[in-house]
Amino acid sequence: MHFTTIARRGLMLVLSSPSGAGKTTLSRRLLAEDEGLVMSVSATTRKPRPGEIDGRDYLFVDEPRFVQMIGEGAFLEHAKVFGNYYGTPRSFVESELSIGRDVLFDIDWQGTQQLAQAMGEDLVRVFILPPSMQELAERLRKRAQDSAAVVQMRMSKAADELSHWAEYDYVFVNDDVEVSLARLKAILLAERLKRFRQHGLTQFVRHLLEGH
Ligand SMILES: Nc1nc2c(ncn2[C@@H]2O[C@H](COP(=O)(O)OP(=O)(O)O)[C@@H](O)[C@H]2O)c(=O)[nH]1
Ligand SMILES: Nc1ncnc2c1ncn2[C@@H]1O[C@H](COP(=O)(O)OP(=O)(O)O)[C@@H](O)[C@H]1O
């Protein structure tokens, strides 16, 4: 079966949630199962966790370098979260969008607000809720990569992150990973078909009208 390709601009799929609700898990699955999607790798001054790889999970940089990158205009947005800097490198995102590839972001509400201002309709914002605060704490503990004190701090920030749910286009509860994944795929499919993203439509329809 031949599939007609219509040129379109890529979209920016933003996932936000309180820490531990499942963004990383869902992002990895979605990236593995969707060829048209690539991850925006953020720069951070946070120390790598066991198993994290520089350049795949984050670009791990020190604070002087991060501040230098801010000065160079290298970030689409940046924020300080849990005492560390996080930022979205600009050039990667812009080149991917222009060739019609979609970019996935795992960023907090501050970053989402800044991206929305800078990038407007390119943004598709998804907020992921935990089933309960008890389950959120359980997931953070089970991840077992952060100390008890860090888990405590993330839980105390959860209410702050949660309070921004209404600034997002799509919101759902991450009970079951498979169900959540299906929801993300549905969102992505519908958003890809939005007319305004498909700049190749004018030419395609003109072609049709010419009898091709
Ligand atoms: N603004 C902004 N936030 C980011 C960026 N990258 C990650 N974050 C957020 O920083 C917070 C902490 O991330 P991390 O230390 O990896 O812990 P996580 O909560 O387990 O993902 C999360 O809320 C992320 O969404 C970024 O480039 N910009
Ligand atoms: N739907 C789910 N049901 C049960 N556990 C989950 C679910 N989604 C994620 N988890 C687990 O919860 C923990 C936190 O998930 P993670 O993806 O690291 O969250 P975040 O990136 O939002 O901080 C991980 O141990 C992960 O395996």
TrEMBL record:
Its EC number is 2.7.4.8. GO terms for molecular function: ATP binding; GMP kinase activity. It comes from the Bacteria. Residues 10-189 form the Guanylate kinase-like domain. Essential for recycling GMP and indirectly, cGMP. HAMAP family: Guanylate_kinase. This is Guanylate kinase. It is found in: Cytoplasm. The keyword Transmembrane does not apply. The keyword Kinase applies. InterPro entries: GK/Ca_channel_bsu, Guanylate_kin-like_dom, Guanylate_kinase, Guanylate_kinase_CS, P-loop_NTPase. ATP binds at residues 17-24. Keywords: ATP-binding, Cytoplasm, Kinase, Nucleotide-binding, Transferase. Belongs to the guanylate kinase family. It catalyses: GMP + ATP = GDP + ADP. It is an enzyme of class 2 (transferase). One of its GO terms (cellular component) is cytosol.
